[in-house]
Amino acid sequence: LRHPLMQSGLSIMLFAATVWGLYLAFGTTQSWRLLSPAKRWIFFILGLCVIGLSFFSQLYSLSLDLRRGAFPYCADTIAIPAFGLTYFYGALTLTCLVFGALLTAFFRPLPVALFTLGDGKGSVRRWLPTIILGLLALPVVVFGILGAAGSSFIGTPAAVVALYLVESARSAMMPSGG
Q1: Three-class SS of residue 134?
Q2: 134: buried, middle or exposed (CB in 10 Å: 19+, 13-18, 0-12)?
Q3: pLDDT tier at 178 (50, 70, 90 boundaries)?
Q4: What is the pLDDT of residue 119?
């Protein structure tokens, strides 16, 4: 019980620090609202940072679990999952770059305020990105919460920034006027 409590506490601190950092970088002085990144390339840089931190978090999790005795001490205990993670995150990076490039084609001028629904015209144009990107955010939330109390707690900032990027993309795809 000791490790999950410590990891949960660290996750809460990492969550708060990440939200604070996002607000300092993308917040407005006039209100509490966050804005999306002002340039499209910032989406890609933040996305690559999310993938890199997630990868590091998973490798650190394997190493931490090995030190805590969750795996037997033999040569292939964490080597095979580490190689699998390397291939998975390589494919994930390529997929996210292609998917991100396709998404940015539908962006309106940046920066935009987050959590907007647009001007009410074109109901499909408003709700389709919300549903699709909401489904994309669902596993981020689930794995972020599961990892927060687990040994991959270092990935909490990656989950927060990933959710910020998903909401920024959704808001940037809304029709103008909202």
Answers
A1: helix
A2: middle
A3: very low
A4: 63
Are 172 and 108 spatial neighbours (Cβ–Cβ below 8 Å)?
yes
**C-beta of residue 35 within 8 angstroms of C-beta of residue 28:** yes
- Would you state the structure tokens that stand for residue 18, as one six-digit string? 């990440």
Tell the residue number behind the tokens 């990105």, with chain if given: 129
Within its chain, how far is the Cα of 12 from the centroid? Answer: 16
* Distance in angstroms between the alpha carbons of the first and the last residue of the chain: 47
Q: State the SS3 of 23-86.
A: HHHHECCCCCCEECCCCHHHHHHHHHHHHHHHHHHHHHHHHHHHHCCCCCCCCCCCHHHHHHHH
Which tens digit of pLDDT belongs to each residue from 96-135? 999 999 999 988 889 998 987 766 666 667 788 889 999 9
State pTM to two decimals: 0.90
Question: Alpha-carbon distance 145 to 39, whole Å?
Answer: 30
